[in-house]
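User: Could you check the structure of this?
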Amino acid sequence: MSLFANAVFSTSAEKLSDLPPPAGAEIVFAGRSNAGKSSAINTLAGKSRLAFVSKTPGRTQLINFFRLRNGAFLVDLPGYGYADVPEKMRRHWQSVLAAYLARRTSICGLVLIMDARRPLTDLDRQLLEWFGPTGKPIHILLTKADKLTRSESAAVLRATREEMAPWSDQVSVQLFSSLKKTGVDEAEAAIGRWLGHVEAAEKRNAPG
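Assistant: Sure, the predicted structure tokens are below.
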């Protein structure tokens, strides 16, 4: 059964003080507005509306927690980079997301969603700078790969992996298409390894 099957909504947070107490490993999904993040989450979960797919980018301004059947959480962060979001809200979310990504000890890894046609924007790099120092794994999904030809997809994948080469021990990259349902097994395998490492560490640290 899929790692994300039977995910159910747990809670939402607008600010750091709203975050629930850490109660399980958190798999964080982040990405630019309209990069296909919600569609990717829904595809991985095998549901049509687990994460809300808005026709107006920038609408989702909450950190949404979904509990998985194994006790871990899928955490859906607000999309970033949409120009029509008011400046005050943009500054608020910049500070909230930076603090959450840098300090939240229950995060076990980050799934960074990028449109394959426009990967590694300045805001994507900024998010990597916030999270990278934690040393926790990052898996990049190059979404909407179906919009590219096979040769274009291969070129984007190669170029992104080359740019991430200095992070090679921490960052992995793959192509993904919610429309074609391609890349799902590869994504689940990469993310599933994070939970395996968390469970192994918990066993090692258990008393007795």
